[in-house]
Amino acid sequence: MATGPARTWRKPPFIASPWLRFALTVAVLGYLGWALATLPFDWGRISEGLPRAARIFGGGFPPSFERLELLATGFKESFQIALLATLLGVLLSIPFAVMAARNISPRPVYLVGRAVIIVSRSFHPVIVAILFVKAVGFGPLAGILTLTLYSIGFVGKLLAEEIEEIDWGQVEAMRSVGAGFLATLTYAVFPQILPRQIGLSMYQLDSNLRASAVVGIVGAGGIGSTLMNAFGRYDYDFAFAILLVIIAVILISEGVSGWVRKRVW
Amino acid sequence: MVTSKEPVASRVWVRYDSRERWTRLAVLLLVTAVLVWAARDVDIFWPWVWDAPAQIHSLGERMWPPDPSRLGEIVDAMIETVHIATLATFLTVFAALPVSYISAQNTTPNRACLWLGRFILVASRSVNTIIWALLFVAIFGPGVLAGILAIMCRSIGFVGKLMGEAIEEIDRRPVEAMEATGASRPKVILYAVVPQVMPAFFAVVILRWDINIRESTVLGLVGAGGIGVILQGAIDTFAWPTVATILCAIILLVVLGEAITGVLRRRVL
User: Fold this and answer.
1) Residue B217 lies inside a defined structural domain of this protein
2) pLDDT above 90 (res B155)
């Protein structure tokens, strides 16, 4: 029988080594202190925030659907941007995916393909949109170009991974009968990745629709431009109406895209 | 038993029956029609389209070579960007975990909480970071606080949704064992739920931190702090070589962030 003071069970610590535990705590606290001390917070302006929030939300409710026509035009443009960008992006992503697949591309081509995909994935669509707005002017063209690039990055990456995982037997079979590179691609590689590509396109359409609401904020057309204008004019009731419709449209498009993807697979 | 009028030899294999074929044709036609409508109706000034490659090329030329003279400033702004992403992820954890707790079917206290939780998650996820930032800049003025809050509001939905799904997938037995010994609700959560979702938690938070770094690079474009402020300034003053430097710095940051999350994922999980 154990004697002496009653022993109680204690939860084993999450990190076993006490030194590491201590060091991590100090590191986290030190980082928080450093970050909070160096970040430029403008407390004077922030303290005005609550009355301002009250004014914005007060001005925003009830949301005004009076300018329904403007809302509809903005959304129509967003849809068109998303559709065209998805079409272009999905088509262009195929050659880049082939380039960026390790198993079917020669080494230098593979590196170029990977670099294109990494660069187009590193930039947030909004940054790309600003550059395109400066290059080709305001309007939906800049939005389409931006989202095309965005789609190439995303679809290209996933498709390249898909190509790297295909069943190699069919490629060997094609090669053994003397088929050229293009014939091998068409009959051995593409049939294996096509179902995936259709699912990805639907996903990308949904994702482009979301993004097209955002790129408009920097002038690339669509509902984002309408929203930005409403915000800029302190037209908060219209802005909130736009926000509500954006949320509704995104939910619907998520549902539709999910339903189609389930049907296709 | 197969009863067919024609002999077996003359039957031809077809991939789709006629109804499937017509459905496919109809879908194809519909998609083409919508695309044609979009291309014809969209408000594009076509001469600009043909001019676009030349314009993009000319912009690229104006950017080259990158100008490193404001490198110190850019590095400071980069550190600020990382701070925004990190602090926002840190705050998200505290806000998202209670939401994921009430929006998981097996731990939610009651139906009302379940729907409240789901509403918060959906609202947070459907509004983009930039739009959140726009709202918070209007409320709190331009600066890092608006950026941190914007990223936090967007991340709550992401982390909360994935954590809610992780909670729904836990093994019931430890929970039942704890309840059978008469443990209180907080103790059940602490000793039966938390240990089971710990790995998912770290995976989700690391993933979100990586995404947040990307997102925080654009916050400055609407005035919410970070590298975007300098980028917007450089674009507005047509300082294209500086813009090129900033873009290179952003690629570097994103690749670095991906490398760090890769290492963390391997070490922690």
Assistant:
1) yes
2) yes
Q: How many helices (H) and strands (E) does chain B have?
A: 11, 0
Cβ contact B127:A250 at 8 Å: no
DSSP assignment string, B190-255: IIIIHHHHHHHHHHHHHHHHHHHHHHHTTGGGGT-SSHHHHHHHHHHTT-HHHHHHHHHHHHHHHH
Note whether residue A105 is domain-resident: yes
Residue range B132-149, pLDDT digits in tens = 898 888 888 888 889 999
Q: What CA–CA distance (Å, rounded) separates B18 from B11?
A: 15
Indicate whether B165 belongs to any domain.
yes
Is B41 inside any structural domain? no
Contacts of B218 in chain A (CB under 8 A): 124, 126-127
Q: What is the CATH number of the domain that holds A133?
A: 1.10.3720.10
**Domain tally, chain B:** 1
Rounded to two decimals, what is the model's pTM?
Answer: 0.82
Q: pLDDT tens for residues A108-138? A: 999 999 988 888 888 888 888 888 888 888 8
Token pair belonging to B138? 């209007």
Q: How far is A38 from chain B (nearest CA, A)?
A: 8
A205 in contact with B, Cβ within 8 Å? no
Range with the poorest average pLDDT among A8-17, B23-32, B171-180: A8-17
Report if residue A14 sits inside a domain: no
What is the extent of the structural domain holding A158? Answer: 68-264
Q: What pLDDT, on the 0 to 100 scale, is given for residue B152?
A: 94
Task: State the ipTM, two decimals.
Answer: 0.79
Has residue B103 got a pLDDT over 60? Answer: yes
What is the domain count for chain A? 1
- Rounded Cα distance between A226 and A229, Å, is 5
- In this prediction, residues A241-255 reach a mean pLDDT of 86
- Cβ neighbourhood burial of B165 (10 Å; 0-12, 13-18, 19+): middle
Phi, psi of B169 (to 5 degrees): -95, 5
Q: Testing the interface with B: which of A48, A127, A208 to mutate, by most B Cβ within 10 A?
A: A127
Query: Number of CB pairs < 8 Å for A and B?
Result: 155
- A126/B34 CB distance under 8 A: no
Strand, helix or coil for residue A40: coil
